[in-house]
Design goal:
With 206 residues, this protein is of the alpha+beta class. It is built from seven helices and five strands, in the order βαααααββββαα. It has one domain. Strand 3 and strand 4 form a beta hairpin.
């Protein structure tokens, strides 16, 4: 796993949802412009754009485009050369991220942070033989979601499938307290995604 970004305070877990609460009010008394509501489609576009940009950087050795797409604080903390060093292991292992162009991500979870000013998404692309995992935090910058933390790794698709099967067998029943808590979450927040991927196992070092 390769990560670079600034730490952000965590908030309660939410699924992709249809609304983001009361609108913020600007200095002129009108609703402030905000980044698009994080629906499944928005999340898919964000994650694919980020991972594709990383793949382009790995293929060309030019990390300037990836850096330019990020939030200002990310750009201030990382120049193109430092990003090349951070993701050097992916390049050394010749990880090809091109296949994700034809795939949609499976989201593990989405969390709003810092009073809805940041969005963290985790999940994976079901590519084979290696699946691509991601944990990316986006910041609302001038009404656009821009990455402030990028973590991308790989896990063997067979290992991922086995981990998902094991976790499915351990899912809490509705009669248990944990199952009841999950049921309440589902009733309280209406997901905008068509299907929710279960939690994925932590990738092991290759």
């Amino acid at each position: 796993m390769h990560t670079k970004g600034l730490p952000l305070a965590t908030a309660a877990l939410v699924l992709f949802f249809a609304g983001s609460g009361d609108p913020a009010i600007g200095q002129d008394g009108l609703p402030a412009k905000r980044a698009p509501t994080p629906t499944a489609l928005v999340g898919t576009i964000l994650v694919k754009n980020t991972v594709i940009a990383l793949g382009h950087a790995l293929n060309t050795g030019n990390f300037s485009v990836l850096r330019d797409l990020a939030a200002p604080s990310f750009r201030e903390a990382n120049d193109a050369a430092s990003l090349a060093g951070i993701f050097a292991d992916l390049k050394r292992r010749k990880i090809d991220l091109t296949p994700i162009v034809a795939l949609d991500p499976v989201f593990r979870e989405a969390t709003l942070l810092n009073n809805n000013q940041a969005l963290q998404v985790t999940g994976y692309f079901p590519s084979r033989p290696m699946s691509v995992t991601f944990n990316i935090i986006y910041q609302d910058v001038a009404a656009q979601w821009r990455p402030i933390s990028i973590s991308v790794g790989t896990i063997a698709a067979s290992q991922l499938s086995q981990g998902l099967a094991d976790q499915a067998g351990q899912a809490p029943r509705e009669g248990t307290k944990q199952g009841a808590d999950r049921k309440q979450i589902k009733e309280r927040i209406e997901p905008a995604v068509s299907s929710q991927g279960p939690a994925i196992p932590r990738p092991r070092p290759d």
